Amino acid sequence: MSTWWVRSAAVAALLIPGVPAHAAPRATPFLDHKALLASAAEPGGTLAEPGWYEANIPFVDLPDADLEAAYYYRWRTFKEALKYTGAKDGWIVTEFLGPVGYSAPFGGINAAAGHHLYEGRWLRDRRYLDDYLDYWLTGSGSEAKPATEELNKNTTDWAHQYSFWAVDAAVARAGVTGDWQFLVDRLPALRRQYEGWKRSNYDAARGLYWQTPVWDAMEYTAGSYQTADPYHGGDGFRPTLNAYQYGDALALAAILRKAGDPTTAQRYEREAAALRTNLTKLWGGDFYKHVQRGSSTPIADRELMGYVPWYFHMPPASSAPAWAQLTDPQGFAAAYGPATTERRSPWFMHEATNGCCRWDGPSWPYATSQTLTALANQLLDYPAQSYVDRDDYTALLRGYAWTQRKDGRPYVAEAHHPDEDRWLYDSRGHSEDYNHSTYTDLVLSGLLGIRPQAGASVRIAPLAPASWDHFAVENVPYHGRELTVVWDRDGTAYGHGAGFRVWIDGRLALSRPAVGDVTLSVDTVARAQDPMIDDAVNVTGAGYPRASASYTWPGDSPADAIDGQDFHLDVPSTRWTNYGTPNASDWLQVDLGAATVVSDVRIAFYDDGGGVRAPASYALQYLDGTTWRDVPGQRRDPATPAGRAVNRITVDPPLTTDRLRVVAPGVFGVTAFQLWRAAAPPALGPRLDTGTLSIGRVTVRGV
Questions:
Q1: Which residues pair with 672 in a beta bridge?
Q2: pTM as predicted
Q3: Whether domain 532-678 has CATH 2.130.10.10
Q4: pLDDT score of 354
């Protein structure tokens, strides 16, 4: 495999958060990115910081407007959930836009972290998930927590608070990035994460893991209601954690083989094989079910989590009849489903409308996305069967997209009514743009069939309906390359020829008349990404840096401008404004607490299209003794202030100061005030050749 390191100024600029759109690579320029992003606009009517999307996400064009709109909206919610915490832990991905009392440091919650890693693996900037993985493996997310009823009395660290398929998700990400060395370097921590569940939740006599349903992130389940503790639920042997550990064991084996340790890899493969054998103890005739810890008989009720083993390719092909329940009107089928408990269960929707959070029938995005991933695996990686087909995948994905609406606009909260067009669990200031599931990954890896591989190849096997005349996904970051896949039945949709075509780094790698299941060779390019530090951030509000202002609207706070989050929502909000000010001009100041080098300042101006707009002009100033002066050597991009965008000010030569402020006339606001610098770069390996792209080998699986 040929690799090379890239440290050009253009690439370095691309990989810094908030980069302008023009810095993004355009290996193929087929799609109108600006028009496509319009569907992700916030309630204010425009999409904030479009340059981030241009620099980071794959662009898709789909003939189904609902599927497409949800795709771009869900990238917006993912961006909102990115939180910079400081030099120690860097970036994390949050579940709630505001931290909750039971979360790990800085608001991390590992319940949906596997979803976050699957979803975020398609971002071009790898540093977000590099940091996030380290947060759970060796950072603040791996630290000790109280072993209490409220925080899981069975475990003692945050990374084991909830069930978590950490290693599998890390390997799934490596399939996209091609960076296996990152995982080899973290093998001790990855093994420790896997082994932690063996210490706390493994029953050696059964050969299975048990879990309390609430620590599976599932309160008030059908099984829970059959115990004395409906909220937590009785401990039980469940398809979830057993499947997660199966996936993690095989993932560890894959990393160990990459590291040249096949002997230890075989140990984990044996453990996975034993779990697969023992999974039959959860098979209740035609479905994988919960077994109470004191029993050996599965409960009568089918719950949607019974499909989780397929997420990891765990069940044998003979278990395929379970999929009949997905489309059964008395099973999980629902207009806004699937339901989380089968309709024939006496516990279906039991007390579900009494308040959050029931997993006995409502449609939970967390479970829906697991089921869709599992279904794609069944359809693409198992022998043909008669219970589900590709049209079922599209129908379920479309229903999932339909749930992600509110008042006619894209929206996702905690759980949806399975039969009515309304969110059941949706609390103000808490549930908005709830990041507890995947969607973009389902479009990319399922609908459009980009199936990452451990080796130097990519499999493309779309599940898109055969009736579609066109679809496209453009500039997918894959193994350091740029991958574009286009289906255009007669060549009129995109003007680049009829048929099914694939481009790699702008070079045509495949052309055939029909959509098919193909595998192409793709070697890996290693592109260096220097770590970056924001010296202005203060997530906790304690100590320094400290923000203050000449005037603040009572509903806002200067501290929200340096809290590590950057989104442009009214509820919840993370911004400072001077709305209602009596002053002709105002300032927002950051006291850094110590002399700090200033070279790269980012200011995101809030603009609600009404009473708070981007200022007509602004000054960036520093404190020189007792006098505020304009920062010398400024170069601004854009040259004039832009609202709902990152305004970048580079300072040359760099300036050293302990206080900065932005001063502007009129009413204005700031969602982020950042002060970025490059950290010490990692040591580079030997520079190899320029990595000739190999596109000669194409394997066709079907027509």
A1: 604
A2: 0.95
A3: no
A4: 94
